[in-house]
Each structure stands twice: as structure tokens, then as C-alpha cells.
Design goal:
alpha+beta; Uridine Diphospho-n-acetylenolpyruvylglucosamine Reductase, domain 2; five-stranded antiparallel sheet; four-stranded mixed sheet; globular
């Protein structure tokens, strides 16, 4: 094995929430071929394995058990495709946002709405990242991963990934499949998705391009989301809850200004609006953990408080929304103990 796992490695700067944390064991993976040996090393010691990307969708415990693998596999390559779309093979350690910018510059489209989402390419399928009416599932061709249970390489087509709203087989069976590469199919002909909020104003713009949509998305996100390096956060902390038509009608009767989007499977509420209506935007607890002043959906951690404080504020927000709207908010980030 060419990589020796290191004991007791500080992860405080490896998570965008800035939570103080230490990994029992840590190794940085830059070459996929080293992965089977690292998995065997961990299994021989009965240690769980955890794949770490950009640390943007995590709440870390003070001590993270097992072997933490920092996925730093790089590479962007055009590959042949019989789909009529533009296909790229991407290393799992590549920055997601940088990848979006690069692929749009090379003539692709279909991921412009997903610009400025933090994290890595390899983490994107886990959460089935989405924004402004577009999800990763819309353009994903294949995922390459190592099965840590069966100790063999696997390839997952779009259907194999079992994508749902902020969900996938990689999240359902967390850390069983260590993603090393992702293949995306992008459109040659630009087909803008402008149904959500501020993007609707672009619909009447003549000669609209994917680059212009991407720039607008970046501007919107920068106006609402703080830079983690300046103000530690994990982006949108709660999922937008999906409710039934009956629930929707009951809520609308009580709240005429309800912010909601119709979905095939029901109605999707704006979690940020629900939190805002509870008066929690800009509020925080004694440790400074709270809801960002510009966007209630974003949980911030300016004093780099512990996971205990993060989870306490999470529970506080959930309780407030439950009491006022009888709606249960689910957190987006995963928790590592």
C-alpha cells in the first residue's frame, strides 16, 4: 500500500461548518488504484470507512471514528458518446463549481443552474445536488465506485443510482460505495430552465446563453450565501419539504402568502420561508450558531462551535416550524460520529 493512514488528524478546516473535529485515522486518496488496499487495511482493523469530499454537507462529531478518506482524485476528460450529448469523465476530487464553469466554457449546457454549489464532483451524486429546477440526475451518465463490502469495482448508470430529492443509493448506503469518477452528459443545444424565482426574468432576454444563466445563478447565490471561509456554514441546511395536496390546501387556508412549488408527487414548500415566518432569520444561540441574516435556510457557525451546538439549533428550528406549520423539516447534511 503506497498510502499510510495517519492517526488523530485534525478535520476542523476540512468541513465548511468549521466544527472542531479529529479523525481517528486519515488518508488522502489521489489515485483510485490505492483504494482496494486502503479498504482492506480498514477491514482488517474492523474500522468503518468514511469518504470526505469538500466537507460542505457534513456535521462532524468531536471525534470521527474509523478511517476518513479524503477523496482528491482529479481529472477532466472528454469521452466518446453515442447519446448525441457531450460527455465528460471527471475525477471525484474535482471542485464541482470549477467543473461547471469549465464545461460551460467548452460548449456544454444543462448544469448552469447548479453553479456555485459547494463540494466536489464525487459528492454531487450522493446528495443528487439540485438548484433552480435542475438536479444532477438530469445530466448524469454513470458513476464509478468501489464497493467496500464486496470489495470490487462497480459502475452505476443513472437508474442504478436510485436518485430522489436530495437522495441516492450512495446516501442510503452511506460510505459503502466510494465514488472515484463521474461521467456527465451535457446538452449541445442550450435549453434553459428558468421556472424558479429570479431566473424567470431571463426568459425574455434575446439570445440567452448558458453562460449568462450561470452568471445570474452565481450572482443570486453570492447575494444569499456567505463564503464558508469567512462565515462557516453548510449552505442550505434543511430540505424543502414535500407535502400532499390536502396538507397544501390546509396550509394555504391559514397562510395566503405560502411559498410553494407544484411537483409531480405533491407540493414542495420553501423551507427558508417557513423558518423566516418563525422569526428565526438572523437569530442564534449562546454559541453563535444560528440562521443567516440574509437567508434563514442557511445555518451559520461563526464561533466554530461543536456539533452539539449545531444539532441543538437544528432541533430548535425544527420544533418552531413544527409548532407553527405542522411540517417536519429534514436536515440535508449528514452527521458523522
Amino acid at each position: 500500500m503506497s498510502i499510510d493512514p495517519q492517526p488523530q488528524v485534525d478535520l476542523s478546516d476540512a468541513n465548511t461548518l468549521g466544527v472542531p473535529s479529529t479523525a481517528d485515522w486519515y488518508a488522502e486518496l489521489t489515485n483510485a488504484s490505492d483504494l482496494p488496499a486502503l479498504v482492506r487495511w480498514a477491514r482488517e482493523r474492523h474500522l468503518p470507512i468514511r469518504a470526505l469530499g469538500g466537507g460542505s454537507n457534513l456535521v462532524l462529531n468531536e471525534q470521527v471514528s474509523g478511517l476518513t478518506l479524503k477523496i482528491s482524485i482529479m481529472g477532466k476528460t472528454r469521452v466518446e458518446s453515442d447519446s448525441g450529448r457531450l460527455r465528460w469523465r471527471l475525477g471525484a476530487g474535482e471542485s464541482w463549481h470549477t467543473t461547471v464553469v469549465d464545461l460551460i466554457a467548452q460548449g456544454g449546457s444543462g448544469i448552469e443552474n447548479l453553479a456555485l454549489i459547494p463540494g466536489t464532483v464525487g459528492a454531487a451524486p450522493v446528495q443528487n445536488i439540485g438548484a433552480y429546477g435542475v438536479e444532477l440526475a438530469d445530466c448524469l451518465h454513470r458513476v464509478e465506485a468501489y464497493d467496500t463490502v464486496e470489495q470490487r469495482w462497480r459502475r452505476f448508470g443513472q437508474q442504478d443510482c436510485c436518485f430522489g430529492y436530495r437522495d441516492s443509493v450512495f446516501k442510503q448506503l452511506e460510505n459503502r460505495f466510494i465514488i472515484t469518477a463521474v461521467e456527465l452528459d451535457l446538452d449541445r443545444e442550450f435549453q434553459p430552465q428558468l421556472t424558479y424565482g429570479p431566473l424567470q426574468t431571463l426568459a425574455s432576454q434575446p439570445g440567452l446563453t448558458a453562460l449568462q444563466v450561470m452568471e445570474q445563478v452565481i450572482e443570486i447565490r453570492q447575494s444569499r450565501l456567505p463564503e464558508p471561509i469567512v462565515l462557516p456554514n453548510a449552505g442550505s441546511f434543511f430540505k424543502n419539504p414535500v407535502i400532499t395536496t390536502e396538507q397544501y390546501q390546509m396550509l394555504l387556508a391559514e397562510h395566503s402568502d405560502l411559498v410553494v412549488f407544484e411537483q409531480a408527487e405533491g407540493w414542495k414548500l420553501a423551507a427558508g420561508w417557513l423558518i423566516d415566518q418563525c422569526g428565526l432569520r438572523g437569530q442564534n444561540n449562546a454559541d453563535g450558531v444560528g440562521c443567516y441574516e440574509r437567508q434563514a435556510l442557511v445555518l451559520v457557525n461563526p464561533k466554530r462551535a461543536s456539533a452539539t451546538s449545531i444539532l441543538a439549533w437544528q432541533a430548535h428550528v425544527q420544533q418552531a416550524v413544527k409548532e407553527r406549520f405542522n411540517v417536519i423539516l429534514e436536515p440535508e447534511p449528514r452527521f458523522w460520529a
